[in-house]
């Protein structure tokens, strides 16, 4: 135990105790305003009743330094500063009485605080100001920037301005100068970032070396919630601390052949109810995580079903065996990838995702395995940076019949790949934008889409309600869809819900997705697979959605835009009555599309083309659209 006697600005004697794991401020009275913003804390008069001395875990300690000229000790840390328990940065400044001990005390604190990392790292920070509810810029400026400043990190900040901007940055920047790339957005920027990295001549080496640190700033934050947990994954300050302190971890990806193109997915692939919830609720992004739940609920009430042919290379189909395998994996050591450092044996604990919400080890049932909302991927208490040893994911392209989200004919073929890159890269076809597509880092091991599959694959053909594969357990903070998903088991987790369930059955299943208890429902099939082939069977008049990592490229395929921006302005028209006399608020959008497809067309022809593509959304309640349709040449002049 190291102790250091100090005096606060209020004249109180404070003893700083450090036991190697935490700093305790003995004798420190209560804060004057515990829910204030970043800054120096001010002490109020001592409370009437004694309170436990405040303690700060080493993980949340960001900086400690002693100034010999002023005899001031500065301690910066992330502590609870909001009424909802979320963290904020606090700076403690104390006058030291035992000056000969000060330097040793500060050095010990910094060594513990950065035991698996080092201070003063250099980060490239990508912020999508349009992400989700449009709050990413404020999240950075008001909450996250203070964390990196306190840790004396060197941050280069870029705000993305258009679709695929992150991919362009990853392609053009000298990434060797950064210790990690930080994304303040939803999951989409991560897709673009990895995409751009793997188009580089040195993409293989960069992907192996450069970690990606996600900070929640969008509607879809499935990756960071799965890494850190249901509660901590929603706190951008917690995520920022984990990026600064965390160790990289490997994660499998799914290699996708979709029509004539080849993509990579590190989150989900889905069709049916869940794809609708992802893609048909774009106009409800202002609702945050709630929009996904509402989308699922709408399809359940409509009792929708979808035609499909599904073929699976099944490894496990017994739920009890899958649960045991998950819990066994959580207790096994696994090696994490650390950029620029070694891994000690004590760091190799657990084999699943995890974070600050973790508590204990799992047992048999799904809800026991995750113990409500505080039991995310187990036993990775400080593993918080996703290593970018993944391949890129592009949005799926498909043939269209002119309606957004309606696929007339396509086949999806997916297989899981280990993140270790192959020695040779194989070029894939050019992307719709005309730029070279992402190079495949994996040799193809499955037959071409036109070729038959082995006889031992499971085939499911007919109507279903949901086909849903994932590498992560949480697709939203309130949807624990794949409770036994593991980051690096080499397998995909698959949910299939058939049409033998009633509307009432489906409604009773929905709340169980919050805890993973749906896994125990006998009508819902859960598989561990190596690969799949999927072919949607369209129904007349039905808009069928196929989503890869929550993205769909219906408009992209039809227009090949170089720029696409959709701004929700519904809040400006909240006083209007909804269309058809509905009591729900209208949805108003400002849509800007830049595409070569508009060349030679009149303004009316361009708008008609856009309205045709948006026909399904307009029928679903989009009332007002402000359209801007430009060619790249026209857009450059503006």
TrEMBL record:
What is the native source organism of this protein? Bifiguratus adelaidae
- Name of the protein in its database record: DAGKc domain-containing protein
Amino acid composition bias (Low complexity), ranges on this chain: 350-366
> Where does the DAGKc domain start and stop, copy by copy?
118-260
Q: Which domain of life is it from?
A: Eukaryota
Q: Which GO terms describe its cellular component?
A: cytoplasm; membrane
Against InterPro entries, the record matches this protein to: ATP-NAD_kinase_N (IPR017438), BolA (IPR002634), BolA-like_sf (IPR036065), Diacylglycerol_kinase_cat_dom (IPR001206), Lipid_Phosphate_FormReg (IPR050187), NAD/diacylglycerol_kinase_sf (IPR016064), YegS/DAGK_C (IPR045540)
Coiled coil regions in record: none
